[in-house]
Amino acid sequence: MTSELRCLVCQNQTIGDSNAELAADLRRQVYEMLEQGKSKEEIIQFMTDRYGDFVLYKPPFKGKPVCCGSPRLFFYLIGLITVFFVIRRKKAVASLHSDAGALQRDVENKKKSVVC
């Protein structure tokens, strides 16, 4: 049971592995609740109600991380689309300039051939 709950002080250890004072208090509380006859699920529910899902060493997946990442993904996609259109437009402008240059040379060559 103590290997499933995270030490809120150490954050990378379970309350069973941690030497922090808070971890000792949580171990004692778990022990007392077990003596009272509470089930594992009731103890975990009590701890998550009090400290949140972070107290679980392996918290359940919820949609919240997806929602938090959505704005970043949205702006990343907007940036990619913007870069795509800017590059496409620059290529089109460069193509127009090269076509205009070729047309200009053709006109000048025709003028020279007509004049001569």
Helix content class: 55-70%
Q: What string gives the helices and strands in order?
A: HHH
- The pLDDT mean sits at 81
Overall 3D form: rod-shaped
Query: Stretches where pLDDT falls below 50 for ≥5 residues?
Result: none
Count of DSSP strands: 0
Q: How many H/I helices?
A: 3
Largest pleated sheet: none
Distance between the termini: 100 Å
The gyration radius over C-alpha positions equals 34 Å
* Beta fraction: under 5%
- Structure classification: mainly alpha
Short description:
The chain has three helices and no strands. The protein has 116 residues and is an all-alpha fold.
Question: Features of this protein?
Answer:
68% helix; mainly alpha; 116 residues
Structural overview:
The radius of gyration is 34 Å and the shape is rod-shaped. The relative contact order is 0.08. The longest helix has 52 residues. It has three helices and no strands. The chain has 116 residues and is mainly α.
Topology:
Layout: H1 21-35, H2 40-51, H3 64-115
